[in-house]
Amino acid sequence: MTNHVAKVIEVVGTSETSIDDAIKGAIAKASETLDNLQWFQVVETRGNIADQKVERFQVVLKIAFGLTD
């Protein structure tokens, strides 16, 4: 019988361009030190405003990765 177990971590990604870039950047950075990434969930979305314009997007992600034997 196969038992699939994953660990879930929380990371924060930022981008001056878009929410999509913030998500992709956070996943790319996590993949540099973690193997077997499986899924992500956006937990929170927020941003920074400067001079009446969006200056930065920020996302909080839960990322799961599979544990190996």
Outline the structure in words.
Helices cover 22% and strands 55% of the residues. With 69 residues, the protein is of the alpha+beta class. A 3-stranded antiparallel sheet has the order 1-3-2, covered by helices on one side. The longest helix is centred in the middle third of the chain and has 15 residues, at 19-33. A hairpin with a 2-residue loop joins strand 2 (37-50) and strand 3. It has one helix at residues 19-33, and strands at residues 6-15, 37-50, 53-66. The two termini are 14 Å apart. The chain has one domain: 2-Layer Sandwich (Dodecin subunit-like), CATH 3.30.1660.
Order of helices and strands: EHEE
Classify the secondary structure makeup into a structural class.
alpha+beta
User: Average pLDDT across residues?
Assistant: 94
Beta-strand portion reads over 45%
Tags for this model:
about 70 residues
How do the helices and strands line up, and which of them pair or pack?
Blueprint: E1 6-15, H1 19-33, E2 37-50, E3 53-66
Antiparallel strand pairs: 1-3, 2-3
Q: What's a quick, concise take on this entry?
A:
The protein is α+β, with helices and mostly antiparallel strands and 69 residues long. It has one domain (6-66): Flavin-binding protein dodecin (Dodecin subunit-like, 2-Layer Sandwich), CATH 3.30.1660.10. The chain contains one helix and three strands; from the N terminus they run βαββ.
